[in-house]
Every structure is written in structure tokens, then in C-alpha cells.
């Protein structure tokens, strides 16, 4: 009986499949059309990583971020395209206008919609841009109101950008913006508290504490001062943090943002039982854009030995904020 020969394939005839940017882009668009936005973001980000100079990839990725309400990230991508491609992709102007409209920054929405019409008067989005401008039109006779309106728009842009940097602990990027804000909007006390917090984590700890005590002297009941000083002293392993924690124990704010700040403060300072109660009382829909909600809620649950709940919260955060998926679960290094 003849032994069947074992024929080895000729390696020269094997063509390896190496995915390229277009492959990732196609997969991302397919996922987007099926409204699987988290999957779409992963594929499209791979396309961008494979070919960072392709503006189409970034434009499509920005559209997905717009769809899930991450307007700041979407705008950053669109601005990158405009910086590198000039006016080759005029649709970016309309997409920016749409995002600013969603953010409530109506003057900026109108400005970008007008830019789109100027640069591409017969473009596919002409009617949408014209409709957007109609919605944004402000009575030109009310010049004083317009000035106040523009100031509020400018403040919101700063706040949105600073919020993004602080959430991502990019203190060196947040600090100069906050310094500008204190000059431009001197009456906004919350800016000074954010500046002190950023100052501390940027390494200027004594200056941050001195500043926060000055603010506390001006407003002895200041919630933000007690929050910041509790965190500062806990980071420095000093007993003074307990005094400021005690000042927060009987405070139950109405607004979800303040509820979150207190919950995160309790979590950061090791008051896990109280932190867990506060996190449970927060409406997730209203704080879902905060990385800190998912990070510190999951840490709190883990510290209270609710491991499955901690993992569930963390996974939900990773789906909502794709950049978290690149990190280890936070309690490993906590």
C-alpha cells in the first residue's frame, strides 16, 4: 500500500492578509449603520491609527461620537481635519455647526454654518445649514443682549474644554485655560475652585491649599472649598481632611453634578459606605459623560466587596467611554 505523500504548501503561494485602513473603515461604517456605535468607534479608531492622515476616517469617527453625544471629541477630530486638509473637506464646517448647536453654543453654530455656505454654497448640506442658521438667528437690534450671549458661549466653550482635560487628568492642559478664564470671567467662583484643584494635582500643592483657604474665608459655607480641602489633605495623609469630610456628611445637593462631586470626594477619601449611598442616588443619564462617575463608583463597589457590581459598572463605563477600555480596572492600581 502506497503511503500518501504529505505535500507541504508552497509558502511563496500564500498571500497573507494584512488589514489596512480601508478594511477597518468599512467595518466601522457597517457597525455604524447597524447603530452599534461602540464597535464602530473601535474599528474607525483602528482605521485612523493605520492611516492618521486620511481625513475621511476622522470625519466618519466624529459622526459616531456626535451620535453618542460626545461632541467635544467629535469637534477635536473635525478641527484636526481642517488644520491638515484646509477647505478640502467643507462638510466639517457643517458638522461643527451641528455639534455646537447641540452644545447650546448658538453663536458658534451660526458661525460655522455660515462658513460652510460661504465655502460650498451648492453643497449637499446647504438646506440643512440654512435651516440651522434660521434657528440661530438673533435679533440684530439687541446688541447688548448679543454681547452677553457671546460671553456665555465663550464661557461654555472654555468649560467644556477644561472639563474634558480635568476628567482625563491632563492638568498641564487645563491649567493655562483656567488662568485665562479667571481673567476673562473674574466673577465666577467655580473657576477659581477648579483652578485650585488643578493646581494641586499639577504639583503646586501649597499654593493650591493657600488659595482654597482664601476662598473658604470669603465663603465659609462653600461646598467646593470643603470638597477640595478634603481631597488635598487626604492626598497628603493629613488628619485635617476629616474636618472637611464632616462638613459634607449632611449636605445633599439637588443638582446631579454636585451630587457626583460629593460622591467622588467620599470615594477618593476612603469613606466608601457613604460614597456608595451617594452614587446610588445619582441619575446616571445626567452624568454619563463623566469618566469619574464610572471609575469611582466601580472602585467604591469593589472596596465594599461587591466585585461583580464593580466589574459591571466598569464595563458600562468602557462602553460609554472607549478610552477607558485601554486601561486596567482601576482598583488594581488604586
TrEMBL record:
<keyword id="KW-0802">TPR repeat</keyword>
<dbReference type="InterPro" id="IPR051012">
    <property type="entry name" value="CellSynth/LPSAsmb/PSIAsmb"/>
</dbReference>
<dbReference type="InterPro" id="IPR011990">
    <property type="entry name" value="TPR-like_helical_dom_sf"/>
</dbReference>
<keyword id="KW-0677">Repeat</keyword>
<dbReference type="Pfam" id="PF13181">
    <property type="entry name" value="TPR_8"/>
</dbReference>
<protein>
    <submittedName>
        <fullName>Uncharacterized protein</fullName>
    </submittedName>
</protein>
<feature type="repeat" description="TPR">
    <location>
        <begin position="21"/>
        <end position="54"/>
    </location>
</feature>
<dbReference type="InterPro" id="IPR019734">
    <property type="entry name" value="TPR_rpt"/>
</dbReference>
Amino acid at each position: 500500500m502506497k503511503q500518501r505523500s504529505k505535500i507541504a504548501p508552497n509558502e511563496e503561494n500564500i498571500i497573507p492578509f494584512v488589514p489596512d485602513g480601508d478594511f477597518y473603515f468599512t467595518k466601522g461604517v457597517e457597525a455604524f449603520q447597524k447603530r452599534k456605535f461602540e464597535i464602530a468607534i473601535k474599528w474607525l479608531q483602528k482605521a485612523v491609527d493605520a492611516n492618521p492622515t486620511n481625513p475621511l476616517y476622522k470625519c466618519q469617527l466624529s459622526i459616531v461620537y456626535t451620535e453618542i453625544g460626545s461632541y467635544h471629541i467629535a469637534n477635536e477630530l473635525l478641527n484636526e481635519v481642517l488644520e491638515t486638509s484646509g477647505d478640502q473637506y467643507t462638510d466639517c464646517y457643517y458638522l461643527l455647526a451641528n455639534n455646537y448647536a447641540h452644545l447650546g453654543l448658538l453663536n458658534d453654530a451660526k458661525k460655522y454654518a455660515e462658513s460652510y455656505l460661504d465655502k460650498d454654497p451648492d453643497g449637499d448640506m446647504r438646506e440643512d445649514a440654512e435651516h440651522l442658521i434660521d434657528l440661530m438667528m438673533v435679533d440684530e437690534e439687541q446688541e447688548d443682549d448679543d454681547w452677553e450671549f457671546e460671553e456665555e458661549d465663550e464661557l461654555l466653550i472654555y468649560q467644556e474644554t477644561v472639563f474634558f482635560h480635568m476628567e482625563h487628568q491632563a492638568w498641564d492642559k487645563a491649567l493655562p485655560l483656567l488662568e485665562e478664564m479667571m481673567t476673562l470671567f473674574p466673577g465666577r467662583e467655580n473657576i477659581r475652585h477648579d483652578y485650585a484643584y488643578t493646581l494641586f494635582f499639577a504639583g503646586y500643592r501649597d499654593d493650591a491649599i493657600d488659595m482654597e483657604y482664601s476662598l473658604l474665608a470669603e465663603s465659609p459655607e462653600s461646598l467646593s472649598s470643603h470638597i477640595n480641602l478634603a481631597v488635598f489633605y487626604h492626598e497628603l495623609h493629613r488628619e485635617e481632611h476629616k474636618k472637611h469630610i464632616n462638613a459634607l456628611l449632611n449636605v445633599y445637593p439637588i443638582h446631579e453634578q454636585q451630587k457626583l462631586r460629593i460622591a467622588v470626594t467620599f470615594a477618593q477619601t476612603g469613606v466608601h459606605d457613604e460614597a456608595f449611598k451617594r452614587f446610588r442616588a445619582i441619575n446616571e443619564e445626567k452624568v454619563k459623560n463623566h469618566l469619574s462617575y464610572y471609575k469611582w463608583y466601580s472602585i467604591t463597589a469593589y472596596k465594599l466587596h461587591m466585585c461583580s457590581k464593580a466589574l459591571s459598572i466598569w464595563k458600562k463605563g468602557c462602553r460609554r467611554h472607549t478610552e477607558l477600555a485601554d486601561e486596567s480596572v482601576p482598583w488594581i492600581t488604586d
